[in-house]
Amino acid sequence: MGVVGNLVVESDDGNESRNTYRRQLDDMAYEDVPGALAAAHAECSPGDILSAEFNLTRSRGVQTVDDRPPPNVDTLMIGAGFELLSGGHGALKHGEPMAVEAVRLRTLPDYVAPRMSVLICGLNPSLHSADMGVGFGRRGNRFWPAALAAGLVSIDRDPSDALDRHGVGMTDMVKRATTRAASLTSGEYRSGVDRLSEICQWLQPGLVCMVGLAGWRAAVDRHAGAGLQAETLGGSAVYVMPSTSGLNAHSSLSDLTDHLRRAADLAASTIG
Fold it and tell me: Is the pTM of this model over 0.70?
């Protein structure tokens, strides 16, 4: 047994490569849960078990977006990059403890919080990005150079800083990491849209920016083009832009920067 951060770590005698991480998630408001789960994901390795006990006891006393009950626990765990094994039936509630056990997947966690200006949504993590711990992490991917040029972020490949300093969150339509997004199915995209709708209804980002048209076309509108969409997600406006992958030779870095700048401007007008 050992301690990593504030996690108690127990090695599985039957499988030395698998650890069980026990974490107390208490004295926090609803809005703190995604960040706590993202931190747990970063401290675990794929295949490790997270045994968590939620006991949300802190309430702000005023009905704000922060105090709205989050989606069901299984939805939160999927977003955090875990697969629920036991527990987690229904939504978290203040003063009602809940124990869950989940396995850490080879994927990325959501970086989300209330009052995000823009929620960036990729198609799914690449295996390279999942192992690196940063979305759009491969050097040939032009998301981060475009985001820096657009003024959306100020530090390269740092999703925590993007969220904390700029209100820019990050998630994916599908959490399953693959070598290429072409292997994803329409059913996976549709399930991802359902999950995103729940998250947006809860956290109310100013705008969701879909990076890559394939997922939105597969799940929502097969004729969709780049730009602001007629459909919303949980009440949040949706902007779809071309893929930033280096494989997309049809869009230059300048084009991608312009799309992110437009998305940021639209988000600012929505919030303002």
Answer: yes
